[in-house]
Write a structure and sequence with these properties.
By secondary structure, the chain is an alpha+beta fold. Helices cover 29% and strands 15% of the residues. The N and C termini lie far apart (53 Å). The structure holds iron/sulfur cluster (SF4), FE3-S4 cluster (F3S) and FE2/S2 (inorganic) cluster.
């Protein structure tokens, strides 16, 4: 049965507003609607200027991460029945707000790019695929699941304190290749992450792991990267 949901949204248009402000909108929702559906109802029928990112609406593209009742979530994965009849929606913390719930993701992607998040192997490829054992594949299975939503990095107190910290999302994506037995650039990635803004800024706070909508064991992955640096090779941490 439909019921009333009030959305309290932190809004800000830097071109017209001096400071951010909260605005409230009431919509009728079904219990199985998601917070994204409620935002769409506001935008489509009440306030067309409300601005937020979304695309797939199914937890795959990673574009609608935002703070929902103070916690980083994907708006398309949160059912309204789980947030009560009054929900506060705010942009991710730690990035410049472009407008309303849209933040500038460029620094996030710059950190992502800095860890060489792609397969590197200059050896002549075999006739068929580069083989690896099931056990070798399992070493980085978890970190292949990242959708680059930034929920982890923007929930990390070490990142809030120092925006130059490479952040958990970049480390997760470095892990995915560092522990791939077919890749040959682990040493270079580990060297980059051994930087003063690298993995050692992680103080094992676990906010990132709790925030991840893909349930990636981020703190564990960061620990494995730290170990690989200490032992000088990912192979030595097996
Ligand atoms: Fe999002 Fe999880 Fe990837 Fe972080 S590790 S960017 S929270 S999917
Ligand atoms: Fe931050 Fe996660 Fe480490 S919250 S301190 S990156 S365990
Ligand atoms: Fe794609 Fe939510 S809209 S993850």
């Amino acid at each position: 049965m439909a019921s009333k949901l009030t959305l309290r949204i932190l809004r800000y248009n830097p071109e017209t507003d001096e400071v951010p402000y909260y605005a409230e909108y009431a919509v009728m929702v079904d219990p199985t609607d998601r917070v994204l559906d409620a935002l769409n109802m506001v935008k489509w029928y009440q306030e067309g200027s409300l601005t937020y990112r979304r695309s797939c609406a199914h937890g795959i593209c990673g574009s609608d991460a935002m703070r929902i009742n103070g916690v980083n979530r994907l708006a398309c994965k949160v059912l309204v029945r789980d947030v009560g009849d009054f929900v506060t929606v705010e942009p991710l913390m730690g990035f410049r707000v472009i407008k309303d719930l849209v933040v500038d993701m460029e620094p996030f992607f710059a950190q992502y790019r800095s860890v060489l998040p792609f397969f590197i192997n200059d050896a002549r490829p075999p006739e068929r695929e580069r083989l690896q054992t099931v056990a070798d594949r399992e070493r980085f299975d978890d970190t292949t699941k990242c959708i680059l939503c930034a929920a982890c990095t923007t929930s990390c107190p070490s990142f809030w304190a120092n925006e130059d910290f490479v952040g958990p999302a970049a480390i997760v994506n470095a892990h995915r290749f560092i522990f791939d037995s077919r890749d040959e650039a682990a040493g270079e990635r580990l060297e980059r992450l051994n930087d003063r803004e690298g993995v050692w800024r992680c103080r094992t706070i676990f906010n990132c792991t709790e925030a991840c909508p893909r349930e990636i064991k981020i703190t564990k992955a960061i620990g494995e990267v730290k170990k690989a640096i200490l032992y000088g090779s990912p192979r030595a941490t097996k």
